[in-house]
Amino acid sequence: MSVEKNTVKYMNAMGVRRTAEQVLALAPDEASRRAGSKLGTAGPWSGAGCGEGIVWGRCEGSGRTPYRTVVDTTGPAYACTCPSRKSPCKHALGLLLLWATDETAVPGGAEPPDWVARWLSARRAGAAGAARKAEGSVAAGPADPEAARRRAERRAARVTAGAEELERRLADLVRGGLATAGQQGYGLWEETAARMVDAQAPGLAGRVRELGAIPGSGPGWPVRLLEECALTHLLDRAWLAADRLPAPLATTVRTRVGLPSAPDGPAVRDRWLVLAQYDTGDGRLTTRRIWLYGTGSGRTALLLSFGAAGRAPGLALPVGAVVDGELTPHAGSGQLRAEPGEPLVPVAGPAAPPPGGPVGAALDAYGRALREDPWLDSWPVTLAQVVPARAEYGWQLADSDGREALPLTGADRSRPGLWRLLALSGGAPVTVFGECGHRGFTPLAAWSPDHPSETVPL
User: For the whole model, what pTM was predicted?
Assistant: First the structure.
């Protein structure tokens, strides 16, 4: 089962209502989040109710007729008579917020009105038909295995041609001098990226666009450009020699150039503590990253979920919750990505944070991960007994004995999460989970000594 299909069954298991934080995580953008928050009170709503996996209500709007809003929380799926093209719209977000925060305004066990029952029946009938079709496809297997093999070979040949062309362009850049990159503008980079897209190598295209953003980005940009060019060159050469690489590293290289990877390994069943959840986007696609820690296995896993422009990713798990289920890891050296094989079910109780260590141990862990995947930007680590402090160059997390410190990444120096971390610490040592990379440390969650089982999202 894919991550998106797994999603919101989480908070419906055992009849548990979602938290406001989890509802707002479904918003497609900040404007929808603000507008939905304003509708999360009982004032504009009438006829609201909820049943098993379904929430509905009428919301007063600018017109004479209230908007009819319904949410199937097991999908998730949303329907509203408002003209918005966003999914979920502000009315669906407001209804879910009201459901999460005011049980009296959205009573449970109510009988859904006819318009809700008709929509739900049609939706679930369609979902059942799609499931039967998918099961038939799986049972039948590939329609033509030989044709599939030929398609894979043709794509590999295109990627190889793209890698060879990129090698020539990198050689021309170095031969002409990196200073010329600041004079050529972004057009040449975008043209090269488009060529990589034509070669069906989206990973290479992404790296080229990152290279194009470096010239003129601030003091020392030629050094940064040279470093990133070297890593791109290494990826090109690795692809061209993939048949001579160890199997795990070859799989990682294929993933880095943009070929899809699939879960491949024994499933791990555990109770997973949700450590962090955050979104990144490029205007066309929103990627949600969720970090989990297996309380029994001690494994760290990464779940990825994607949403097209205007839509939030499907998967949303509240930070600090504990869920039970199986995760199947993806293949590749140093890869932590995994896929749920079944719905993740909430279980009782908070959980202790992952065992942490000093700054030096975190840097060692990142170094070992780089040995397996040289293109890795960061690695998940837990720092124990560290203190946030202001240094000459910005904020940092330092060992309580003052021996070593990690700078916080630039984007985090002004984040609200930084101020939550400072308030939680109050100058005392804390435990912090985050991503350690060559740019520094990005804190994502923290625990205080006074409340070691209470996960504070950053």
Answer: 0.76
Outline where 141-186 has alpha helix (H).
145-176, 181-184
Complete edge-to-edge strand list for the sheet that includes strand 67-72: 45-51, 54-59, 67-72, 77-80
Q: Angle at the Cα of 133 (from 131 to 137), degrees rounded to 5?
A: 115
- What's the Cα-to-Cα distance from 35 to each of 27, 105, 394, rounded to whole Å? 10, 19, 35
User: 212 by DSSP, 3-state: which?
Assistant: helix
State whether residue 313 is helix, strand or coil.
Answer: coil
| Cα→Cα distances 95→41, 58, 357, 411, Å | 8, 9, 43, 33
- Return the biggest CA–CA distance within the chain: 73
Q: Report pLDDT for 96.
A: 92
How far is Cα 335 from Cα 404, in angstroms, rounded to an integer?
A: 28
Cα distances from 228 to residues 78, 180, 245, 341, 399, in angstroms, run 43, 16, 22, 36, 30
Edge-to-edge order in the sheet of strand 394-399: 405-407, 394-399, 378-391, 430-437, 440-448, 451-457
Q: How many CB atoms lie within 10 A of CB 66?
A: 17
Residues 6 or more apart in contact with residue 141 via CB below 8 angstroms:
none
Average pLDDT by stretches of 10, the chain with 458 residues: 40 54 79 91 92 90 89 81 88 93 86 89 67 49 74 91 93 87 80 91 92 87 92 95 90 90 86 90 80 94 83 80 90 81 78 92 94 92 94 88 87 69 92 93 92 87
Of 85, 2, 86, 35, nearest to 312 by C-alpha is 86
Q: What does the radius of gyration of the chain's CA atoms come to, in whole angstroms?
A: 24
Note the pLDDT of residue 333: 62
Three-state secondary-structure class, residue 25:
coil
CA distance 233 to 440: 24
